[in-house]
Amino acid sequence: MLSELDTIQLEGLTLLASVGDETALEALRVNFLGKKGRLTAVASQMRDVPPDQKAAVGAKLNEVRTALTAGIEERLLSLQAEKDAASVQGIDITLPGRPSPGATLHPLSRIRDRAIQTLRRMGFAVADGPEIETEWHCFDALNTPADHPARNEKDTFYLPDGRLLRTHTSSVQIRTMEVVKALPVRIIAPGAAYRRDEIDATHLSVFNQLEGLYVDKNVSLADLKGTLEVFFQEIFGPQTQVRFRPHFFPFTEPSFEIDIKLEVKGQEARWIEIAGCGMVDPAVFQAVSQMRGDNLFNPEEVTGFAFGMGLDRLAMILHGITDIRHLIENDVRFLSQF
Questions:
Q1: Tens digit of pLDDT for each residue in 83-102?
Q2: What is the CATH number of the domain that holds 330?
Q3: 327: buried, middle or exposed (CB in 10 Å: 19+, 13-18, 0-12)?
Q4: Is residue 40 in some structural domain?
Q5: Cα–Cα distance measured from residue 155 to residue 118, given in angstroms and rounded to the nearest whole number
Q6: 224 & 289 share domain
Q7: Largest CA distance in the chain
Q8: What's the predicted TM-score (pTM) here?
Q9: What digits encode the pLDDT tens for the residues 223-272?
Q10: Do 123 and 21 fall within a single domain?
């Protein structure tokens, strides 16, 4: 048996030198080391070897297996090296390389990340919710009357089962208040919203919103004003002027539109509307309390503020983009500016 093992080793290593590709190499490996290979067949005869020869035969068997395995691995590396060399044959390695353009974040991703980071530093946590909503979460709980224009099919995408594509991320505020265990609630809800708007330079049917909610005992209008002034000065610069104009929203009372003073070099400074906000209407707290069946959001004991803004609009103002459609067209000439 020892001589047979020597023969197997010699034949295997001799054939390795003539193997021309990886397919032939694998066939050789199976022939010698596979489950039905020659070396495996010899190993199966170990039970017939006399006891005084078992140690010598076993050692020789391991030696042959190790030699063949090492030879196969070495030949495989050699074949791969030959293939790599052939693939670059004729290439002039002295030619200068072609630079690969670096990727950058989309302007919407930039403003979204920046807004979230700013508000997280102020103590807000990120919350999420479904984009297909119920009327209760999107309108009823937010004190929106049945005849409000936003509930009309001309303004909102309704599904056959009565649900709808959310028109704002305020529905996330309601869903958060439904499930929290204790106060305070301090969350922001970035995400997509949908409205039946005619697409033009300032409107899309799908846009990106970021809304915020802070509820606790003794939350005041001063808290709201201070929070948003700091936020917009962080986004647009410390010298940014912010003003609050009285307005009406069904879910806040009092309510305000927020303007910032835009100063562009070579142009006269002007005020532009950028967000809406207000103190949470007690009717919203009542609706949530009825749904929960407890008094955690008792309007006699808690107050809160809410705000909302379009991230698309923030990006347009920050980067001087004049047409909102540029943000969704994926034109490389436009995106390469960022």
A1: 888 887 888 878 888 888 77
A2: 3.30.930.10
A3: buried
A4: yes
A5: 32
A6: yes
A7: 105
A8: 0.70
A9: 999 999 999 999 999 999 999 999 999 999 999 999 999 876 677 888 99
A10: no
Given the DSSP bridges, would you call strands 252-262 and 270-280 parallel, antiparallel or unpaired? antiparallel
Q: Which of these three, 25, 53, 87, is where a domain ends?
A: 87
Instruction: Give the lowest-confidence range in 129-138, 147-156, 180-189, 295-304.
Output: 147-156
CA distances from 150 to 144, 145, 197, 253 (A): 9, 10, 11, 19
147-to-143, 150, 153 alpha-carbon distances in Å? 12, 8, 11
Would you say 250 and 278 are in contact if contact means Cβ atoms under 8 Å apart? no
209 and 323 both lie in a single domain? yes
What beta strand segments (E) does 88-221 contain?
125-126, 132-133, 164-165, 185-194, 206-216
Boundary-marking domain end, from 87, 117, 151: 87
Tokens matching residue 288:
């949530």
Residue 102 lies in a domain: no
Find out whether 105 and 338 touch, Cβ atoms under 8 Å.
Answer: yes
What are the C-alpha distances in Å from 90 to residues 20, 42, 208, 209? 22, 48, 52, 55
Same domain, 312 and 221: yes
Mean pLDDT of 108-133: 96
Supply the range of the domain harboring residue 280.
108-335
